[in-house]
């Protein structure tokens, strides 16, 4: 078998032919021996780390949902809330990314999106994020009906925003 470079090819000024890397001792898609036990444990569901619970979007025991009235929140507060919900395990990373992306917080918003829409950025103006996400759900169902994963993520975001708002209103009514 030839090596990676042939001296005669280099001497003649031609490019050296490609030689495949040496064969590995195990099959290409087979996990390493130390990884096989961890993969089997995850498939069995016997042990899961707290970080895997956060990525699945399920709440970890003992961590309350952060409180914020999502019907009177501004984009800055929603960006912070999305990170708190992710860290508490209420939203997955993808759901938190969807919720936390607030274009009005970008410094070039007025030159780009604002110039196209004719509306300047108002990152401190309160708005009803629950109705905004319900409108987005209706839009996605109408224009993107086949993306079930996105629909589930939006449903999860709406339910968590409602839960955060209801816990906020319950505490503020008691005070």
TrEMBL record:
Amino acid composition bias (Pro residues), ranges on this chain: 18-31
Superkingdom to which the source organism belongs: Bacteria
Region (Disordered): 1-66
Biased composition, class Low complexity, residue ranges: 8-17
Name of the protein in question: Uncharacterized protein
